[in-house]
Design a protein that fits this description.
Layout: H1 11-19, H2 28-50, H3 98-115, E1 123-124, H4 126-133, H5 137-149, E2 153-156, E3 160-163, H6 168-192, H7 195-199, H8 202-214, H9 217-233, H10 238-251, H11 264-283, H12 286-298, H13 304-307
Antiparallel strand pairs: 1-3, 2-3
Helix pairs in contact: 1-4, 3-5, 3-9, 4-5, 6-10, 6-12, 8-9, 8-11, 9-10, 9-11, 11-12
Length: about 300
Amino acid sequence: MKHSAQGAAGPGAGTAAAAVRIPVQPSAADVARDRDRDESQSRARGRMRGAGEPDGAARGEHTHGEPPAPGPSVPGPSVPGPSAPGPSTPRPRTPVQRSSVRGQVLDALRAALVTGELRPGEVYSAPVLGERFGVSATPVREAMQQLALEGAVEVVPNRGFRVVERGDRELAELAEVRALIEVPVWLRLARTVPAERWAELRPLAEATARAASSGCPATYAEADRAFHRAVLALAGNEELVRIAGDVHRRAQWPPAGSPTARGRADLVADAHEHTALLDALIAGDPDAVRALVGQHFTGARQDSGVLGL
């Protein structure tokens, strides 16, 4: 059943949104920014007092009967004192920046795409999803527009966003593109990166194994991307990391008709290849690395033309 912008929601919309309801809290960046601003202002006041500037009244602040201003403290809501509001009355701080909410919604929607909770072919209304997230439609719409740029959804005028239906052919093509981008880099890094640097990636490989054991495709997808991103970062090419990451994310979306991206057994097998690859890289075994890299990116399809081996 399709979903309209007037609020009709089928099983896909309800399940996806309910499963990823997000808390509205300040981001770490917001808290850090407020703390830095408070400390900077406090230091500036101290310098002006040291230079002989009168406190308070010379700047137009009301000082009669008010206690001395406290020193720097943990950031929190600003509460005006008993005096009448004046130019120095602190403005209420916005608890959450819209960009922070948009980012949380985008992460939740991406996870719902990987698990199949956002069903291919279904149309989802931003107001309906926003209601279930506990936010306005605006950050949901902005997140959906980002997904449209990534090719995950398409805009349906006056209705919402339709999840793109993807076939096996598209997934095979994405796998081929990933192999063309990543395999040569892996093989070059195998010749140039010392064993101790590869050993530093062991915790990330172990994290993919734990995520695979959970059986959650979205959890594994995130851990998998983190491991591959760390490997490619050793090449020192930020554009390579970004482009490969975009292709990797698209390759993780399940095809139409599939309830989930991959089963637990497939996830565990994929994670095991990460640890096997690290073992071969640390041991400096180029033949094993070559074979394992080919298996990891193409599975049973060992096409030497695609891999460039």
